[in-house]
TrEMBL record:
GO terms for molecular function: hydrolase activity. InterPro entries: AB_hydrolase_1, AB_hydrolase_fold, Carboxylesterase_BioH. This is Alpha/beta fold hydrolase. Residues 17-205 form the AB hydrolase-1 domain. It comes from Phaeovibrio sulfidiphilus. The keyword DNA damage does not apply.
Length: 217
């Protein structure tokens, strides 16, 4: 789809000093691992991290793409298209007391409303993330706010959302279009929070097309 392109996947929680322990969306160590001049693409909380790094790099970052990413995951008086704080706190407490059950519920919410359904949820459940890492990234998710990063970054932005997402309200697309009017904000019809796994080829085509549109020949 993008001849000559090199795709690298970075885990924000790998290495001797993972980002969730630094209290920052992206640590200096992680930023150094991401190639200079790379387009930044992130799903969910990874989209917040990508936005933060794009703002840090400024003109040195050619573009930003987020997938199912709410710039502020928990609701506030000035950002209501998000998860209520009480609901988020209950989820965090559930993970603390019964992590396996809570992760199963999370995977079900990730795929709720989409075509992947239970089969995709079971597939997500095959991975067993480190419990301490999950707790730390949950704590970060509860306080992260990437809105100013999105406003500060002046390069091309594509933000994709699933219309059936049970974790990120579809109304965030409208609010984001107001926050960053120059950004491209689109809805994946019938997509869940895991829409990138439900039809990866279609999502890849859209992302590739956007990159081509904003890459000089």
């Amino acid at each position: 789809m993008l001849p000559g392109a090199e795709i690298r996947v970075h885990d924000l929680h790998e290495g001797p000093h993972p980002d969730h322990l630094s209290g920052a969306p992206v640590s200096d160590e992680t930023a150094a691992r991401v190639a200079p001049g790379a387009w930044l693409v992130g799903w969910s909380q990874g989209g917040q991290a990508a936005a933060h790094l794009a703002a840090r790099r400024g003109a040195a970052c050619p573009g930003l793409v987020t997938l199912g990413s709410n710039p502020r995951f928990t609701a506030s008086t000035d950002w209501t298209a998000a998860m209520p704080v009480d609901t988020f706190n209950a989820f965090c407490e559930g993970f603390r007391t019964n992590p396996d059950l809570t992760l199963s519920r999370f995977h079900a919410l990730c795929t709720k409303g989409g075509p992947g359904g239970r089969a995709l949820a079971r597939s997500l459940g095959e991975t067993r993330p480190d419990r301490a890492a999950c707790q730390a990234r949950l704590a970060l998710l509860g306080t992260q706010d990437a809105r100013q990063d999105l406003v500060a970054y002046r390069g091309p932005q594509l933000h994709l959302y699933g219309s059936a997402d049970a974790l990120v309200p579809a109304s965030v697309a409208r609010d984001l279009a107001v926050l960053v009017p120059e950004a491209t904000v689109e809805m994946i019809d019938g997509g869940s929070h895991a829409f990138a796994l439900e039809d990866p080829a279609a999502v890849a085509r859209r992302v590739a097309a956007f990159i081509r549109e904003h890459t000089a020949p």
